[in-house]
Amino acid sequence: MARALTIATATAIQYWLLFGAVLPSVGTTNADQRAIKLLDQAPDWLRPCRLKDPELNSCVKDTFQNMFPALAKGIPEIHVDRFEPLYLSRLSLSKGHGPVTITGSFYDILAHGPSKAKATSAVLDMDRRVFELGVFLPEIRIESDYNLQGKVLILPLIGNGPAKVNLDNVTTSVSTRFELRRLQGRQVLHIADMTVDFDIQGMTVNLENLFNGNKVLGRTLNAFVNKNALEIVKELKDPLGESFSVVFKDIMNNALSHMPIDLWLLDQ
Ligand SMILES: *[C@@H]1O[C@H](CO)[C@@H](O)[C@H](O)[C@H]1NC(C)=O
């Protein structure tokens, strides 16, 4: 009887340790946590690194590089949607001062090109909980709808309708601060903050249905935007970077939440 009680108590404590004790740090319900399917073993696309490796950063860079093609196709067994094309429901923009002012958003976005991403650098500092990743994308072709209003240098801009945007030679630098969270008794990396800096070498834009469908004004504005594309992007760097960071953080956390670090950041 006493023994049975002890076992029951021990089981309850184990249960609490596994599912109860992680609650405050994770902030989701037990059901959510158990719904997340963790990888049992490292698949081909997940190459482990050793934390004590003096070339850890280079190893982590290769790990991400190796992961991109698999992520591009999607990994249904861990609920990771395909990245190619990448679907984003919305990218909002808000900038109220300066030569370019704009409010509104691009929505129902399909971006082709993320599968061609190359990891160019990585820095992983487990003590400071800092992770940085450099990514180069040779080309991104975007089709979406837009709803924007504002002023681009000397011209007003107002419209909503379909948009096409092509970006060339996009260099991004993603800086994150992360936490380690316990999920089902294992640890996963969770990105708490992210900032995204980027540089674009070429951009072409076509916004349809500007100015209520006035074709002459629409053509004028598109030509003007294309002629001054890089300057406009420079003006929009901060709000675009913020918008990207919201989206990338979600995407990365979704993938990382299924990848316990015991599979890819080995202690020994
Ligand atoms: C992108 O980079 C390639 C290789 O460096 C170069 O040939 C090409 O001209 C660049 N494109 C733009 C738009 O700058």
Automatic annotation (TrEMBL):
GO CC field: extracellular space
Q: Where is the signal peptide?
A: 1-31
- What InterPro entries does the record tag this protein with? Haemolymph_juvenile_hormone-bd, To_sf
Highest taxon of source: Eukaryota
GO BP terms, alphabetized: circadian rhythm
Q: Which UniProt keywords apply?
A: Biological rhythms, Signal
**Per the similarity annotation, which family is this?**
Belongs to the TO family.
Protein name, please? Protein takeout
